[in-house]
Design a protein that fits this description.
Lipocln_cytosolic_FA-bd_dom; secreted; 10 strands; 3 helices; alpha+beta; Lipocalin/cytosolic fatty-acid binding domain-containing protein; disordered N terminus; signal; about 170 residues; single chain; Lipocalin; globular; 10-stranded antiparallel beta sheet
Length: about 170
């Protein structure tokens, strides 16, 4: 099992083609809204899928060595508020939710942020991305940056889901 986690962690670190940018806690901490999500295994992010999440709040702790996340998931069709704290090691966060998750935060602009995650559910690794915005939407340029991220990670463009169409959870 440790071998699988180490392989997953190494894969995530190697997947980033550039060195991870140092996170500025003031740009990360605050209200966020999930705009788009995508996965190489689309079933995981479809409505009522285990990895479909509506993020509301991120908070850097100790210069972003830990990250507090508040989000909603629908089980089934009912919004359930959840929270988790991820720990950062070598630029990659780890958190347990629907398995083991290793993820990185990728600044897109002052008002948007992408998340690239690899989820291991005990059987299979699923690559997942999400585009977050500080408002109700993203600019065309931010969306293009997000689409490029998916392309780089091997996630097909037809696997992108618009979360704003199904997000009826409380702010």
């Amino acid at each position: 099992m440790k071998t699988v986690f180490l392989t997953l962690l190494l894969g995530l670190v190697c997947a980033a083609q550039e060195a991870p940018a140092e996170l500025d806690p003031s740009q990360i901490t605050g209200d966020w809204r999930s705009i788009l999500t995508a996965a190489d295994n689309k079933e995981k992010i479809e409505e009522e899928g285990p990895l479909r999440a509506y993020i509301r709040w991120l908070e850097c702790i100790d210069s972003c060595s830990s990250l507090s996340i508040k989000f909603y998931a629908k089980f089934p069709k009912q919004c359930t508020r959840l929270s988790a704290v991820a720990e950062r090691e070598r630029g990659v966060y780890q958190v347990g939710y629907m398995g083991s998750n290793f993820f990185e935060l990728i600044p897109v602009s002052e008002n948007s942020l992408a998340i690239y995650s690899e989820n291991f559910d005990g059987v299979k690794v699923t690559k997942v991305t999400q585009l977050l915005a500080k408002g109700d939407g993203a600019t065309e340029e931010e969306i293009q940056h997000y689409e490029e991220l998916n392309k780089e990670r091997g996630i097909p463009p037809e696997h992108i889901e618009d979360l704003t169409q199904t997000d009826d959870c409380p702010q």
